[in-house]
Amino acid sequence: MEKLNLKSVVDYVEKNIGVFHQKRIDGLNNLKLKKVLKKKNPYLFKAKHILTSQDIIKSLTDAFISSSEEGIFGGWLEGLSIFINQNVYGGWKSGITGIDLEFDKDGIRYIVTIKSGPNWGNSSQVKKMKNDFVTAKKTLRTSNSGLVVMPINGCCYGKDATPDKGDYFKYCGQRFWEFVSGDKDLYIEIIEPLGHKAKEKNEEFQKSYSKMINKFTKEFSNEFCMDSGEIDWEKLVRFNSSK
């Protein structure tokens, strides 16, 4: 085990945080209005008494962005945690299906699936993760039958009061970052460098966002509004749900 060099973590974050911001912008630029409309509930818009094209566009776009950013940033944090673990424990990006990180500590091979937060999946997704752990154990023990393997579900933020799940452990927030780094304060120490150039990058994102809202509002009005200016709800529902 090597002591964590916090400066190397800061350097990594500042060098790579731009990737997250660029993916946010790319996600907006690649967004197609009709593709998003097909995935949203038109009845909900009507029930909420939404009357303008822009309000519908902002509602569906903001929901898409929120979901998309969670996934993008979760993937980015996964890369950060693997980088940190490599520097401390010599861990590596796993090549086993469903496993993100592997490393050895105190005679134990840890296999880690990394998620953004503690409430990341439904029962079938958790079941799949457990099956992936079982398969990974079998794979690793094929070449070393005496290998002690410990499955871990790591979550980059949040809490879980009962980390021992029986056939695996779930480490969230501070517990996870200490697990991959050996530093109990890392979960606090990484928050500051994450803001590197955040204001500048967010201004760039807002420009792309504003252009997209205007573009989609115009497109929606042309396609789904009547000459009177009212939303043509029947046409919108048919587009979304007709067979």
Q: If you had to describe this structure to a student in words, what would you say it looks like?
A:
- This protein has 243 residues and is of the alpha/beta class.
- It has two domains: 1-90 and 197-243, type ii restriction endonuclease, domain 1 (Orthogonal Bundle), CATH 1.10.3250; 92-181, type ii restriction endonuclease, domain 2, CATH 3.40.1560.10.
- The chain is 58% helix and 11% strand.
- It contains nine helices and five strands, in the order H-H-H-H-E-E-E-H-E-E-H-H-H-H.
- It has helices spanning 6-29, 33-37, 42-47, 53-89, 123-143, 174-181, 186-189, 198-224, 233-241; strands spanning 92-93, 101-105, 108-115, 148-155, 169-172.
- It has a five-stranded mixed sheet with strand order 1-2-3-4-5, sandwiched between helices.
- A hairpin with a 7-residue loop joins strand 1 (92-93) and strand 2.
- The N and C termini lie far apart (60 Å).
- The model has no long low-confidence stretch (mean pLDDT 92).
The major pleated sheet works out as:
5 strands, mixed
Strand content: 5-15%
Rough shape?
elongated
Flag low-confidence runs: none
- Looking at the overall shape, the CATH architecture of the largest domain is Orthogonal Bundle
Neighbour order of strands in the largest sheet: 1-2-3-4-5
Would you tell me which CATH topology of the largest domain applies? type ii restriction endonuclease, domain 1
Number of domains: 2
Given the structure, what is the number of helices?
A: 9
Helix content: 55-70%
The sequence of SSEs as H and E is: HHHHEEEHEEHHHH
Question: Would you tell me the overall average pLDDT?
Answer: 92
CATH class of the largest domain, named Mainly Alpha
Distance between the termini: 60 Å
